[in-house]
Specification:
- The strands form 3 sheets. The protein has a 5-stranded antiparallel sheet, with helices on one face.
- The protein is an alpha+beta fold.
- It folds into 2 domains: 128 residues, no CATH class; 186 residues, no CATH class.
- The chain is globular, with a radius of gyration of 22 Å.
- The chain has 8 helices and 12 strands.
- The longest helix is centred in the N-terminal third of the chain and has 21 residues.
């Protein structure tokens, strides 16, 4: 069974439980339809979708359930039951669960490895289940940022790594830095303006304080009718991955979903861009960053954001080949 056939199987399982629920008012408490292996689709009393994972033979004491206000977890009678709490999360939940189960299926995972994979990929999308107004489209800043990350995957990492290594290094949807490679962290900043001032998302996002070397790619793009839209660069890379592997393609779509790139918003992402300039920087001890600050008593979880003026960072500039050689 390929991924398309497996997707149809999952879709049919959702349809089956909805139909049973409509026909039988008693089909409620504990009712479920098998989706795959130990995973069963279910509905709660409010018709909201959920999933039951049967763990009779597994030791899950060390498994931590991810928390979010948009879903609930319950472990009882050797079953993990998860449901979304509000109707606004329903469609996204179903899409996400299907993609994760396709990944589990294609990787032939079972037992504890399967559950850990399921929960890990679920938590990467946790922020969506914390938002008040969903599903919302990507902001312009998020669209431009995603455009730059996909172009980096295809045009830069693709010059050194194979498709699998490149894709699995893309950690933007889940971690502080956009790419995590064996020896290097890579942060991408993309802009449509002429300014070379970039925002940091945290105190030490662009600072030499990590076990791995940190590099910065600053991408300047311009609106151009002869360029490519966000949809087009994603579709182009999707085709390349699909030709290579069903698993890589599914993982890419899963990462895009975790970024909240959803089909229902694709008509909003028509603006075309062309890359104007690519700028590469090495982040070492002399790079400007906040080295020390005093946190007054009574404050906790302090995070400082600031702008970096790359016009004043020419001493840290490297060329593309230097970057690629050091990844």
């Amino acid at each position: 069974m390929n991924s398309i056939e497996f997707q149809k199987k999952l879709d049919n399982a959702w349809i089956e439980i909805l139909n049973k629920r409509k026909k039988d008012e008693k089909f409620l408490e504990g009712a479920a339809v098998k989706a795959h292996d130990n995973y069963w689709f279910t509905l709660n009393k409010n018709y909201l979708p959920g999933i039951i994972i049967k763990v009779e033979e597994l030791n899950i004491k060390n498994i931590k359930f991810p928390k979010a206000k948009g879903w609930s977890f319950n472990f009882h009678n050797k079953k993990i039951t998860m449901n979304v709490n509000e109707d606004k999360y329903k469609d996204f939940f179903i899409k996400l669960i299907n993609l994760i189960l396709i990944k589990v299926y294609l990787e032939k995972l079972n037992g504890e490895k399967s559950i850990n994979c399921f929960l890990k990929n679920l938590i990467f999308a946790k922020d969506f289940f914390e938002e008040e107004n969903v599903p919302r489209k990507l902001t312009m800043e998020e669209q431009i940022g995603l455009f730059g990350e996909i172009q980096t995957l295809k045009e830069i990492l693709g010059k050194k790594f194979n498709l699998e290594t490149s894709l699995y290094s893309w950690t933007g949807p889940s971690k502080k830095h956009d790419f995590t490679l064996p020896n290097t962290l890579l942060e991408i900043k993309t802009t449509t303006t002429d300014t070379k001032k970039i925002n940091t998302s945290s105190t030490n996002q662009i600072a030499p304080v990590y076990d791995k070397n940190l590099k910065l790619i600053f991408i300047q793009i311009k609106k151009n009718i002869n360029g490519s839209s966000l949809n087009e660069v994603i579709d182009s890379y999707s085709k390349i991955l699909k030709q290579e592997s069903e698993l890589l393609f599914n993982d890419f779509i899963l990462k895009l979903t975790q970024c909240r790139y959803l089909d229902i918003h694709k008509t909003e992402y028509k603006q075309k861009y062309k890359i104007d300039k690519l700028n590469f920087f090495n982040i070492d001890e002399k790079f400007p960053y906040i080295k020390e600050y005093v946190v007054p008593d009574g404050l906790s979880d302090l995070s400082i954001t600031y702008k970096i003026d790359l016009e004043k960072c020419e001493d840290f500039r490297i060329n593309e080949q230097e970057l690629i050689n050091n990844l």
